[in-house]
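Thread: Modeling a multi-component assembly for a lab meeting

Hi all, long-time lurker, first post. My supervisor asked me to bring a structural picture of a complex we are working on to next week's group meeting, and I have zero experience with this. I have the sequence lines for every component (1092 residues in total). Could someone generate the structure of the whole assembly? Inputs are pasted exactly as I received them:
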Amino acid sequence: MVITRDDVIDWIKVYAQLLVEKKDYLTDLDSAIGDADHGANMNRGFQAVLSKLPGMEDQDIGTIFKTVGMTLLSTVGGAGGPLYGSLFIQAGKAVSGKMELTLADWADALEAATTGVVSRGKAVLEDKTMVDALTPAVEALKESVSKGLSLSEGLKNSAKAAEEGMIATIPLVARKGRASYLGERSAGHQDPGATSSFYLVNTAFKTWTNSHK
Amino acid sequence: MVITRDDVIDWIKVYAQLLVEKKDYLTDLDSAIGDADHGANMNRGFQAVLSKLPGMEDQDIGTIFKTVGMTLLSTVGGAGGPLYGSLFIQAGKAVSGKMELTLADWADALEAATTGVVSRGKAVLEDKTMVDALTPAVEALKESVSKGLSLSEGLKNSAKAAEEGMIATIPLVARKGRASYLGERSAGHQDPGATSSFYLVNTAFKTWTNSHK
Amino acid sequence: MKKLINKPEEVVKEELQGIELAHPDLVKVFYDPDFIVRVDAPVKGKVGIISGGGSGHEPMHGGFVGKGMLDAACPGAVFTSPTPDQMLAATKAVDGGAGVLHIVKNYTGDVMNFEMAADLAKEEGLEVEAVVIDDDVAVKDSLYTAGRRGVGLTVLVEKICGAAAEEGRSLKEVADLARKVNSLGRTMGMALTSCTVPHAGKPTFDLPEDEMEIGIGIHGEPGRKRMKLQSADEVVEMLMDPIISDIPYKSGDEVLLFVNGMGGTPLIELYVLYRKAVEVAEKHGIKVVRNLIGPYITSLEMAGTSITMLKMDADLIKLWDAPVLTAGMRKGI
Amino acid sequence: MKKLINKPEEVVKEELQGIELAHPDLVKVFYDPDFIVRVDAPVKGKVGIISGGGSGHEPMHGGFVGKGMLDAACPGAVFTSPTPDQMLAATKAVDGGAGVLHIVKNYTGDVMNFEMAADLAKEEGLEVEAVVIDDDVAVKDSLYTAGRRGVGLTVLVEKICGAAAEEGRSLKEVADLARKVNSLGRTMGMALTSCTVPHAGKPTFDLPEDEMEIGIGIHGEPGRKRMKLQSADEVVEMLMDPIISDIPYKSGDEVLLFVNGMGGTPLIELYVLYRKAVEVAEKHGIKVVRNLIGPYITSLEMAGTSITMLKMDADLIKLWDAPVLTAGMRKGI
Ligand SMILES: Nc1ncnc2c1ncn2[C@@H]1O[C@H](COP(=O)(O)OP(=O)(O)O)[C@@H](O)[C@H]1O
Ligand SMILES: Nc1ncnc2c1ncn2[C@@H]1O[C@H](COP(=O)(O)OP(=O)(O)O)[C@@H](O)[C@H]1O
Ligand SMILES: [Mg+2]
Ligand SMILES: [Mg+2]
Ligand SMILES: [Mg+2]
Ligand SMILES: [Mg+2]
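Re: Modeling a multi-component assembly
Sure thing. I ran the full set together rather than chain by chain. Output:
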């Protein structure tokens, strides 16, 4: 069981659709500890991605990821733009030329993606950022691969880990990004970026598990 | 029974005191059809008058009125300043040199005062202005004089007429002053200037009747 | 009431103290009676130009005192016309021997107070002319009202007449010019929110979250009609149509287009409005040759806008472009 | 939400169209990627100066493009840093052969996007330096935050570096000057009300009628603490004390004092604040030798203020006084 190019395109489409629904929620989260734009930013970026999808459909997965990343870079702006841009660009480099992905490939891609986010944003775990959702997801994927778990089990584990990571941002005091200006007042609120990152990993789980049922 | 110089000073003091109480109410009336400052304007003016009273106390009534008028002119501003300024200045001219006033003198004074307001502001009856309170008060005074009524009866009649005039402004569409910009929307609201003018006439009635009981 | 003030009664005095401290290179401030004069007043041989009115419209008028615009401004209490003694003192302070022009916005209070000041000044032998500005098309100009209000056009009259006086034109010429500008310009305003007069302590009118007022003035007075919120483009059309049809402006006219912020409207919105206003003007064949965009005649923190159009000719353009050095408007100096 | 806009997604584009129509004598506007450049860019032999950031802070930055200030500005969505392609295109458009300075406000998004743009520009052989402005004393400057925000001082850096570039100073000199100004200036802000981001549609934070936020930034982000409303004088002390003690400024220092309006605060209040700010400075023996008062770096329609102090020397004064011709700031031209 592998992730096909169509699966990847589906994932992006479903995520873009989900952002339309979750836009206001993400913005609400960003209002509490940021500047009330994370939902609009992500939505603007993925709408732009959607409009470029037709041109990507016969490319390899690495190229698709890179194109998504470049599109996000030039449409999202804010912190999210370079971070999600790097995420996809680095994922693309990791699976360059591939037409389908095994669970191990996907683990590599998400690890490279997360490393991209970390090297761009310099956040470490518990800084209350998207890294707090991505890093556990990568670890869960790698563990699933080493245990020889199935694609759908691996995806499920990663989604669960991302969700826990996202929820774990609630009590944290932010040390990176705009929320860090709030100091102690940032505690008690869920990080918007961790939330959009959880959605990304969770959408991969849901979309790809569905298509392989 | 006459109105003494002390009565006149008392009247002004009591009116100034009343304006402190009615300031917000007058401003509310002015909010509805004007610019929310009539209470503050009148109060500022009469506080200034109060601070000048000590210097006026041994002047004749005409001079007292003129000083009050000049003080209002340089402290009230807006439409109220020139109108109430003219009111007192013209009243002062009418009773120039007098140390006490009969009901007839007072009728003359208020008539001159009202003529002063009319010639300054060019309002006619039912334009929804202070003239609507003052004119009936003058007429009531003159009628009381011609009927030979007592001071207190004459004052009472003038206060009653002013009150009716004030209330009669409610349904009117304003044709002068700021309220006229509202056109039809000015109907249904009591005119602030008619209200402060009613208070003036009513305070004369109350203060002078009290001191002659 | 949320305001960065100390006591409502002290706002104007403290503002004047701030202006005095901030702009000693431009103006001198006098107190009791309060007025602001150009630092080099009186300018010998130049017509002096004075305006004034209630405070709360800043930068108008105090921010327009300086070379090329006003010689003096008389601030009243918030939204309350100043008193004659202020205008009299200011008139004396700026009289350079060529007479003094009073630029008066058409409000009963302003007109009466300025009139009394002019009478007193004339009694003292000064030469004074007064021009009343009444550009607000929201108000029906009939015998049964106080006439149209003086609003946005006032800023343009002050700039243009200031330049003319600086050029050495006579009192009669400058007064005629003011009347000409007044005849060639029209304004219409609207509000999204009311303002709060400091001593009133609460908004002058309540405007539900989904409504706006069309045809407001600059004193928080209610407008002519209240309606559901509309888009920026629709608002511009609602303001421009009565302006254009009033004079009426016609195809081929060259105009100055002034999109004014009422105080609480961000500049970003004013540019959105300007964009549409130009489009509407062009649709009528009217060419926008000069513009002014920003909060120049405000109504405290009111959110809203007014649009002013002024028909231009070569002389007006030259005067508009002339140098000006004030706290609120600056060009070429 | 009460705004004079059409669609939230269109605000920035329509604003740019308005600017393009309004100021063809000053700027050219480019779209996709969006940026505003000085009409005569690139100026041969002159260091190009670029800034940018989220929209909603007007007149900053687009209003500061012109002779003597910025060569280009890159506007992002409201409160959202622009993207690298904008800064790359602007950098190319203003490069007159003497290199380009990026003036970046210290926000994670701005820093990362500008960094990527600078990297791309360098790859294309352009000479680029970036200076990050971080003057906000409301934020603890520790390893555990994103550092201090760039706020009011940015306006002063843009003016001063713009003048230096106009004088023909080198990229290194202008960049060092920017760093020097950044080291000599500090800002602190407060809000009486929240602003409403157009696409969010509701206020970013709720502030009860009797409370204010101290230590806010310029993006509607909550401040460091919330407290009961205080008088203007008390607010000034609360803002000035942390500024003065931070550098620390000392007796005998000469400063520029900048009292900024956040968008919804009337000018009359800014002068009331300025008056007190001068008093506080003087109490510390600090002499205010220059000032700036008005809404220059705003947060949409937020009511509030920020105070910036910048220690001046002869060179800074000369550069501050130098001519500038932009839509948002003008002197001597
Ligand atoms: N240095 C960083 N490293 C990783 N993630 C970060 C960093 N700074 C901010 N973020 C993430 O970005 C999110 C905010 O994104 P967004 O609102 O789009 O940008 P901005 O903060 O510029 O408005 C935060 O919730 C956080 O998860
Ligand atoms: N032309 C006029 N003649 C007589 N009274 C007038 C005239 N114009 C206005 N008024 C009176 O003045 C009152 C308003 O006074 P005030 O609020 O102090 O001045 P302003 O209208 O300048 O704010 C009105 O309620 C009205 O009674
Ligand atoms: Mg954000
Ligand atoms: Mg009034
Ligand atoms: Mg008034
Ligand atoms: Mg942002």
